[in-house]
Amino acid sequence: MRAGGRRILDDVSLTLHPGEMCALIGPSGAGKSTLIKVLLGLRDASEGSVSLAARGPEQLGTVGYVPQDDALHRGLTLEAELTFAAELRLPEADDGERSQRIAQVIRQVGLEDRARSRIRKLSGGQRKRVAVALELLTRPPLLILDEPTSGLDPGLEARMMELFAAVAASGRIVLVATHAMGSLDRADALCVLVGGRVAYFGPPRHALSFFRVDRYEGIFHQLDKQGPSAWRTLAEADPDQRLFLLRRGPAAEAT
């Protein structure tokens, strides 16, 4: 994929399955935002492919997206915010169905005791949960979160990643673009982008041995030691990563 004559993404191919959470990391300019736009259908991939449960993004239906900066109505209560959103997003549902769905997502994000609280009085982590709840109203098969733990302390960041993992376990694909390294083990897959190329795509723990580091933070230092094309070549030659691309999803494994 090119923009202004510059290649932004180069032969990026990922396979994600329902029930999996994938963490997306990489230095600034790696192509994370462009990849998210492709998954959201805001940009078309000119070359290569992104396979999500063996289907393209346009075949998945509604895609949930939580941006880094929320756009919540802070003067409303959580319940009122979700009611307003449900009327817009679920126009064919009756009042009873919408109320049931609102109650479900409030429970799913663990905010039952804050349902009647005004959003401006919620903590940063709680507001992130509200933003996630809004997207869960339509039961999207794919949920994309862009830096959802930015500005949160390590404890809150860990709890948010646990929430995202639980959402994935309910049968959804969850992609989390993040700079937070402390909770990568909670992901089922890790994608490392550099210079628009995939430097690594596989289980998070295997990335430590692949990059020869003890901590996830060390991956960024390793990326500077050679160019994006060299990293992609190494990733493509890694038998474990090749097998990971061909793995069966959690639902297939269960059967």
Could you explain the architecture of this structure?
The chain is of the alpha/beta class and 255 residues long. The protein folds into 2 domains: 2-61 and 141-254, 3-Layer(aba) Sandwich (Rossmann fold), CATH 3.40.50.300; 71-139, no CATH class. Helices cover 39% and strands 15% of the residues. It is built from 10 helices and 10 strands. The chain has helices spanning 32-39, 78-89, 95-108, 124-136, 154-169, 204-211, 218-223, 228-237, 239-245, 250-254, and strands at residues 2-3, 6-7, 15-16, 21-25, 51-52, 63-66, 142-146, 173-177, 189-194, 197-202. Strands 6-7-8-4-9-10 form a 6-stranded mixed β-sheet, sandwiched between helices. The protein has a two-stranded antiparallel sheet with strand order 1-2. Strands 3-5 form a two-stranded parallel ribbon. Helix 5 links the parallel strand 7 and strand 8. The longest helix is centred in the middle third of the chain and has 16 residues, at 154-169.
Please supply descriptive tags for the structure shown above:
single chain, 255 residues, alpha/beta, Rossmann fold, six-stranded mixed beta sheet, two-stranded antiparallel ribbon, 15% strand
* H/E element sequence: EEEEHEEHHHEHEEEHHHHH
Can you identify the CATH superfamily of the largest domain?
P-loop containing nucleotide triphosphate hydrolases
What is the CATH domain class of the largest domain?
Alpha Beta
Determine the CATH topology of the largest domain: Rossmann fold
Q: Supply the CATH architecture of the largest domain.
A: 3-Layer(aba) Sandwich
Q: Quick one: overall form? A: globular
- Number of E strands: 10
Largest sheet: 6 strands, mixed
Bin the helical content: 25-40%
Q: Write down the domain tally.
A: 2
The rounded distance between the terminal residues' Cα atoms is: 37 Å
